[in-house]
Design goal:
single chain; 32% helix; alpha/beta; 4-stranded antiparallel sheet; 3-stranded parallel sheet; Ribulose 1,5 Bisphosphate Carboxylase/Oxygenase; 9 helices; Rossmann fold; 236 residues; 2 domains
Length: 236
């Protein structure tokens, strides 16, 4: 294991790496130990007691963060002409169909979210090999395949995020920026965790939330308390 950098040593000296903190405390610590010169992303990693290899234990969903993510979300809407005005009025950055399908086939994926309508999924489905690995493939479960494109665009722009447990049983998600005050970060994280708790598969046995860590870009992780009573009661 390599030696710690000067900044890293300063960061780890500001909190107890063996202790678990409530969300407000963790958010305050993350703000203090962040040394980047840019407005770093603040992320949550939630380790679940599920087996992602089993389809009945897959945890996936969406959540609207009360204070947004602090990130400008670039949205592409793939739809027929009758839905274009609705998508543009809601603030979509790119709207169209055939021309964007061809651009994507050529390697263009310069967006954060792709929303489409069910009637064009036959065409969009052919882009799975390109969009899937980048996490851009529209999916009804995440609200990105819908006839209500205006609402979907508005939600994604406002801070509606998608999350999915990875093959190691961890959900990674951004809950804001270091420039957010600690209360807003804690409330965003709380909303995400509550949503994950609600999505607990009935087939999952034992401890559901095994650990939670909060960190910023390039900062050490801060352990967060995982007591279900606190999470359900809404304490931060």
């Amino acid at each position: 294991m390599g030696s710690l950098t000067k900044n890293r040593k300063v960061s780890v000296s500001k909190y107890d790496g063996e202790k678990s903190y409530n969300l407000s405390e963790a958010a305050s610590i993350v703000k203090k130990i962040t040394t980047t010169k840019f407005d770093a992303s603040v992320d949550i990693a939630v380790r679940l007691g599920v087996d992602p290899k089993k389809s009945n234990q897959m945890v996936r969903g969406t959540v609207s963060l009360p204070h947004g993510t602090g990130k400008t979300v670039r949205v592409l809407v793939l739809c027929t002409p009758d839905k274009e005005a609705e998508a543009k009025a809601a603030g979509a950055d790119h709207v169209g169909l055939n021309e964007y399908i061809e651009k994507i086939k050529g390697g263009w994926t310069d967006v954060d979210v792709i929303i489409t309508t069910p009637n064009v999924m036959g065409q969009v489905g052919a882009l799975g090999r390109i969009l899937g690995p980048r996490g851009l493939m529209p999916n009804p479960k995440t609200g990105t395949v819908t006839m209500d494109v205006g609402k979907a665009v508005t939600e994604k722009k406002a801070g509606n995020i998608d999350f999915k447990v990875d093959k190691t049983g961890i959900i990674h998600a951004s809950v804001g920026r270091v420039s957010f005050d600690a209360t807003k970060l804690a409330e965003n994280a709380q909303e995400l965790i509550h949503t994950i708790v609600k999505l607990k598969p009935s087939s999952a046995k034992g401890t559901y939330i095994k650990s939670i860590s909060m960190s910023s870009t390039m900062s050490p992780g801060v352990n967060v308390e995982t007591k279900n009573s606190e999470l359900i009661a809404g304490k931060i």
